[in-house]
Amino acid sequence: MANPADPPKEGAAVKDWMAWCAAQLEHYEREAERDPLTNSVRRLANDLSELLTAGAVSLDTLSKIGGAFSDLGFEARAKEFARAHESAGAPAAVVAAVLAPLDGASFEEARAAIEATRAGVVFTAHPTFAMSRKLRDAFAARVEALQAGGKGAASPGLPHAPDQRLSLADEHRDVEEAIVRAQNSMRAINREILLWAQARYPKEWTTLVPEPISLATWVGYDLDGRTDIHWGETLRIRLAEKAVQLARYADALAAVKAPAAKDALVRALKDAAALAGEQAALFAADFDDPAAVTEAANRLSGDDPRRLVSLEGVIASLGELIDGAGDDEARLALCLLRAEMKALGLGAARIHLRINAAQIRSAVRADLGLDPDREFFDRSTLSAASELAAGAASRRVNLASIFLEQMTARRQFMLCAQILKHIDADAPIRFLIAESEAPATVMGAIYLARLFGVEHRLDISPLFETPDAIERGGRL
C-alpha cells in the first residue's frame, strides 16, 4: 500500500502539517485492518520523532501542531458534551413527566414515590485532572455557549495539560464547588416536586421530604492507593464541610419570611458553623505532635454551647416553623430546607470511605489467628471471621487511639466512630472495600465495625474490580 505524500518542509503552515498528520493516520488505520496489533497513533508519533531528530521539524512547530489538534479536540468534545447533556426541559417539565403516573394516586402512594431515592451521585474528582482548572472553566463556558446557540469554533488559548501542581486541597476545592452546584440543582428539583404535590394535596404536601437523588463524596476519605491523606486531614475536611454547610443552612433560613422564632435557630446554626470552623483549623496542625492532637481532641469532644452533632432537633423546629408559617411561599422554602438537611446532614454530601481489601486482611489476620502466609479465601477463614464478628464487643475509642493505631483499616473504623460521635451522628457512612475477592474480607469488616461500635451507621460495600473479584462477586 502506497505511503502518503512526503511531509511538509520546516516553516510550512500548521494547517499543512495537520493535513499530513491526518493523512498518515488514515494510512496507518487502513494498514491496521491487516495488522490489528499496529497502533496508528504510536506510528505517527514515531514519524514525528524521526523528523524532529533529523531537523525536519522544530519543537516549536510540533507544539503548534499539538495545540491546533488539541483545540479541535476541545471543540469536538464540547459539542458532544453539549449534545449529550441537552436539557430535557425546565425542572417543572421534568418533574411533571416523571410524576405523571401518580396523577390520581392517594397521598400515601405519592409519598412513597416522592420520598424514595432513585439514584446516587458520588464525586471522586481525580478523573478531571487531565485538564487544568482554567481549561475546565473554559470548557464549561464553551458548552454553555453552545447550548445557548453559539456558532463557530472557539479556541481556549490555553495549554491542553493538567495543572503543574495538584494537591488534595485542590481536589477538595474542586469537588466542593461541584457539590454546591449539585445542591442548587437538587433544591430546584425538590421545589418543583413540592409544588406538584401542593397542587394535588393542599392539606398534606408540607409533610413531604423529597430526596430523589443522593449526593456523596470520597474526596478526602479514599485511602485506596493513596498515602497523602492523613487521618487528621480527613477530620479537618469533614469539619470544614460542616462549617460551610451549616452556614448555608443559616443563610437559607434567614432569607425565609417566617415567624420571628426562626431567628434563634439561625443564630444556633451560625454559632455551630463558627465552632466547626474553629475545630477544623486545629485539625490542620502537625499531627505528628501529640500536643497538637490533644488540643484538637479536647476542642472536638469538649462541652460547648455551640456544639451541634445532630440535626434532629433543628429539623423538628423547622416542622414547627412550617406549621406556623403564614403563607405557602414561606412553607415551601422551609420544606426545601428540611429536605436538604435530611439528605445532607452536617456535611456537603454523604461520606464514602474507601480502603483496599488487603488493608482489611492485614487488620484482622492476627485476631483470626492466621499465619502471615495463610490464604484468606478458604471456608475455614470465613467461618473464623463469622464467629469473630458474632462475638465482637464494642470498644471505646478516642483520638489518642487513632494516633497510636498503625493499621489503616482499624484507623478508618475508629475515624467513623469519631465522626459519628463528635461531628455528625445522623448521616450514614458508606464503607467501600476495593478489590474484594473473599467473603472473609467483608466479614472481617463487619467484625471491625462492631468492634468500634459503628455498625449501626455503616453501609459496608465490597467493590468487585479484579477478574477474580468479578468471578466471585455473585457468590460473595
User: H/E element string?
Assistant: HHHHHEHHEHHHHHEHHHHEHEH
Helix content estimate: 55-70%
Q: Please report the number of helical segments.
A: 18
Q: What class do helices, strands and sheet pairing give? A: mainly alpha
**What strand line-up does the widest sheet have?**
1-2-3-4-5
Number of strands: 5
Distance between the termini: 53 Å
Q: What does the average pLDDT come to?
A: 90
Major sheet: size, sense and barrel closure? 5 strands, parallel
- Strand content bin: 5-15%
* Integer-rounded radius of gyration: 28 Å
Stretches where pLDDT is under 50 for at least 5 consecutive residues are: none
Shape: globular
Q: What distinguishing features does this structure have?
A:
single chain, 476 residues, mainly alpha, 5 strands
